[in-house]
Write a structure and sequence with these properties.
Blueprint: E1 3-8, H1 11-15, E2 20-24, H2 29-39, E3 49-52, E4 55-57, E5 68-72
């Protein structure tokens, strides 16, 4: 079974059992986020961005085997 390596940063890492973990493969970010929030309901109330291969994605994004997924807290200031 294919899996992703997911890395969580900042407050997101604090809300999850581990800051880096494996998660089953999903075809796109929309499906992945749904599954993550089902597995970790505490994510549902948090605002965060998803990065695929170190690039933040704003809309539903196709995923591929070996993509690097990161969950990023909101950024501040400039």
């Amino acid at each position: 079974m294919e899996k992703f390596k997911i890395k969580a940063f900042g407050m997101l890492a604090d809300k999850l059992p581990e800051s880096e973990f494996e998660f089953p493969f999903y075809q796109n970010t929309e499906e992945l986020l749904w599954a993550l929030k089902k597995e970790y309901p505490q994510l549902d109330s948090l605002k965060f961005s998803v990065a695929v291969n170190k690039e933040v994605v704003q809309q539903n994004h196709a995923l591929h085997e070996n993509d690097e997924i990161a969950l990023l807290p909101p950024f501040s200031g400039g």
